[in-house]
Amino acid sequence: MDMTRLFLTLACCATQVVAVAQSDVSIERELIARSNELMSAVERQDRAALELLVADEFMLEVPGDTASTPRAEWIDNAVNLKWEGFKFHNVKVRSFGEVAVVSALLDFKVTTGIGIPISSDVQVTDVWVRRNGQWLIAVRQLGADSLSGTVRMVLGFLAALVLCFFVRLFVRLRRKAKARKALV
pTM score > 0.70 for this model? Predict the structure, then answer.
């Protein structure tokens, strides 16, 4: 009789573990789909869809920047620029009941307001909250992106070229000054 109880208790625990694992997989699939739905709405410049996907308290945070971008400004930027080619890589989902964190590398292309096309990728960490059965994005934090590194490298190279130009200019002017002194 004790063995029967032990077996039933173990079977019940195993069933709960399997149910939790299936629930986590289901939440993971749902959040990945929701993340793709969000970026698809950005690409389509669909303000109405974004209004439904983005929580009222949404904030975009950028490392090193003390200011955050609030919901209204983020949605305006999303629908006023030409975005395309969104693709998530290395997606990780962590669920904590009614809150979940989705992190991934996000590839994208954007055309600025003055028509300059930019391709980049960025590490994103999104905090999603479940309200009335729907997942809403509450926080997006941007991490390192390939564009920033490229811009820093190009700016460093340009700064080195400018420095070389001024060193050469200084050397030429000094030689001319010495040549004039020698003539006098």
Answer: no
pLDDT at residue 149 in the model = 45
Domain count, the chain: 1
Task: Provide the pLDDT for residue 154.
Answer: 47
Which residue would you say has higher pLDDT here, 34 or 143? 34
- Expressed as residue numbers, the domain containing 113 is 2-145
Rounded-to-integer distance, Cα 34 and Cα 131, Å? 14
> From CA 93, how far away is CA 163, in angstroms rounded?
47
> Is residue 55 in some structural domain?
yes
Residue 54 near residue 76 (C-beta atoms within 8 A): no
How many residues comprise the chain?
Answer: 184
Among residues 31, 23, 33, 27, the alpha carbon closest in space to that of 102 is found at 31
pLDDT value at residue 5: 64
- Dist. CA 178–CA 122, nearest whole Å: 54
